[in-house]
Amino acid sequence: MTQTDPPEARINQAGASRDFRSHPPAMSIVLPVDQPESIRGVLEKLRGQTIAARLEIVLATPAPAAFESFRVNQTDFQAVKVIALGDLSSLGEARAQGVQAASAACVFLGETHSFPSVPDWAERLVARHSEGWAVVVPGFRNANPAHTLSWAGFLLDYGGWTEHAAAGEIDYWPLNNSACDRAAILGGPGDPGHALSYGDQLILALRAAGHRVYFEPRAVLSHLNIRRWKNWLDERWVGGRLIARHRSRDWPLAQRWAYVAAAPLIGLVLFSRVARPAWRTLRKLDLSPAILPAMLLGSMTQAIGELAGYSHLGGFASSERRMTEYELHKVCYT
Questions:
Q1: Tell me: the pLDDT tens digits for 248-274?
Q2: Burial grade of 66 (CB within 10 A; 0-12, 13-18, 19 or more)
Q3: Facing residues of 135 across strands?
């Protein structure tokens, strides 16, 4: 496996449209979505990619008719697929169906609120994947950086993989917004819908299978973050609950309650994992130190959610619906 830079030569878009239609796409972008308006900004950025004509867009939606004209009339991408879902109650199942329908060997698990920030974002991810890396993680940038809570949420979720961090092999990565080997995902143990839900099931499975992960900070992706207190705290709590519930789905009762008992320590563990890279980012960008206490609060809120998740209390479907709302319409809360 080499670690050379991605090629600097750029592909002529018109030529690519003619030459690559008979070949598999370079990368499939999997997007769970409810309505065309939700992905307008994402598609605009994807159209500006140097290899746009080699990208396949896979839309997993309960409203396929709303996207039919776009699928038929699109000319910017190599292909657009619309996958009909019964509903979007499970984003993990939506992602799994999108991955199964994808044509490319490399699939990007996208979101409606994450946008490529450089024109060669896709090209760099594909180049690293072609070197043999099973997962390629882009460098993250805060898309709404004017607010303390936006920074706190961003650093809690992506502080270890900002665009300022060093490139190289890594052991842990964010499940969403990463380019993954399709065969590795579908060949993992268990149900892909569960693996692609909340938690680290897929991450641990790929690592146990010996798959390797590369962090490519020059493939910059901007991520929108909630900044309203009520919704910010709710997202942290609901996220913790879903992570714990999916992670512990098959655990014995004794193991689940051991984690319930340890819940007060979970918040400190979560904060300690991100405090150092977050501090480096704060210093580099000259950001307010007030972001750190907000991050601690977010970590403790997530820990309370995890306590509820490990105890398998009721209301799980409601938590899924609330998180789906935040994931699909995050722009409404920024």
A1: 988 999 999 999 998 889 999 999 999
A2: middle
A3: 180, 213
- Dmax over CA atoms of the chain, in Å, equals 61
C-alpha of 161 from chain center: 12
Sort 316 into a burial class: Cβ within 10 Å, 0-12 / 13-18 / 19+: middle
Angle at the Cα of 15 from the Cα atoms of 6 and 101, rounded to 5 degrees: 70
- Distance, in Å, from the CA atom of 298 to the CA atom of 156, rounded to the nearest integer, reads 8
Determine whether 4 is exposed, middle or buried from the number of CB atoms within 10 Å of its CB (0-12, 13-18, 19+): exposed
Three-state SS string over 18-35 comes to HHCCCCCCCEEEEEECCC
Show contacts of 282-290: CB within 8 Å, 24+ apart. 284/164, 287/151, 288/148, 288/151, 290/148
- Please report which confidence band the pLDDT of residue 16 belongs to, taking 50, 70 and 90 as the band edges: very low
Q: Which residues pair with 169 in a beta bridge?
A: 214
- Answer whether residue 13 shows pLDDT above 80: no
Q: State the Cα–Cα distance between residues 185 and 104, nearest whole angstrom.
A: 13
Question: Burial level of 232, CB count in 10 A (0-12/13-18/19+)?
Answer: buried
Position 124 scores a pLDDT of: 98
Q: What does pTM read for this prediction?
A: 0.90
Which tokens is 2 given? 């080499």
Coil vs helix vs strand at 163: coil
- Chain segment 98-108, per-residue pLDDT in tens: 999 999 999 99
